[in-house]
Amino acid sequence: MRRRVSRLAIQHLSAGSRVLLGSAKPWPGFEHSLKSYVLVERDGDAMSLRDDHGEIHRHPLHDGRPTDPLTSEIYWAGPLPTEQTGLFPIAWARLLNSAGRAAVLLHMLRFDGALATAEFVFPSYAAQSHEGSDQFTNLISERDKPFEGEIVGSAAFHRQHVLVTLPDGFHARPGDLVGAASIKLEMTPEGAFLAELVDPLILRFFRSREEIGAALPQWSVPGINPFEFGPADDREIDRLVGAARARTEPNEALVYRYEHDGTHILTGRGALFFDTGAAEDTLSNHRCAPGLWVVEQATGWSHQCLEGEVDFGIDATWRPATPHDVLRFGLTLEQVSQTIAELREIEHAPSLCEEAIDAAAASTGHSLTPG
Questions:
Q1: What DSSP character marks residue 71?
Q2: For 167-196, what is the HEC assignment?
Q3: Is the pLDDT of residue 94 over 60?
Q4: pTM of the complete model
C-alpha cells in the first residue's frame, strides 16, 4: 500500500516537539535556510518557538501554519540525529523532504567495479503497526502484512538488495549510509534490480548495522510519521520493486465483466496493469459481453486535449478465458468464483467461475474498441 501523504501542521504537535522550518517553495541551496526550533507553546493564532541559542520567537499562524514565507513549511517534526551520531541534521531534512519525491536510504555493502550492492534502510517505527493514527498525518499503520525484513535498534533493513550505479565523482565506500531524493529501478534480464540515485548524499560511514540502528532517530508518537515525504518504508520499496518487475512483463490481465459494464481485474501483469484501478476505469469503456476474459497485447495511449486535460486509454485484444488461463495467472477456479459472488453480491457457488468462462466463450460480440 502506498503511503498516504499529508502535510504536518502545528496542531499535530505538542510543546517540546522539535521542528525544522523552511520555505514552502525550495530553491537551490534552500537547505541553508532551514532552522531548528523547539515548540514552546501555541496560543490561538500564534506560536512561540525557541531556537538553538535559547531565544524565543513568536510566529503568527494561519490554518495551523506559520505565515512567514521563509518558515511556512514544517520539514521535520521529532527527534533529529544528534551531533554524537555524526549525521548532519540539515542535510538529513533536505534529503528526506526533497520536493515531495520519495526519498530512500541505502546502506552500501560492497563494490564490484562501477556497481555497488546496497540494502534499503528506514527508521524502524515505520515497520511497526500503530493504533490511533488520524486523517491529518502520514499514516504508518493499516498494514496488510507484517514487515519481513530485519530490525536492528532504530533501523529496519529491507530484504531486497539492489545494484547501484553511482554518479561520476560520487565517492561512496562500503559502510556508507547514502540517501537520495528518489530512486529509479530497473530489473535486469538476470533478475537483479539496477538502481539509479537522484541527488545522492553520503550521510555517514557506519561499521555495522548496529551502529546505524543506534544513529537513526526513534519516534514515540503512535500513528504519526515525522517525515513529510520519506524515507521510503518497506511498502513503498515493495511498490518500486514491483513496478520495475512489471515493466519487464507482457501487458495482460484476467478480467471479469458483469452487468451494467461492470469490470473487475482479478489479476494482471505488466506496467499497464500494475495499477489495476486506473486500468479498470479504462477497460470499462470497452464493449464486451459479460464473462471471464483475458486482455492481452495491451498498449497504452494518451493525448492532451485543447483544454489541457490528458486522456488515457488502453488498446487490447480480448479473448475468452480458459481454466488454464486462471491457473496461469496464479489463481484457482474457487478463488475466482468467490470473487464473482462478492462482486455481484450473490450466493457463492463453486460453478460461478466455469459459468463465466462459458459465458465469454458463447459470446459473439467481441468488439475491442471503447464504447
A1: G
A2: CCCCCCCCCEEEEEEEEEEEECCCCCEEEE
A3: no
A4: 0.70
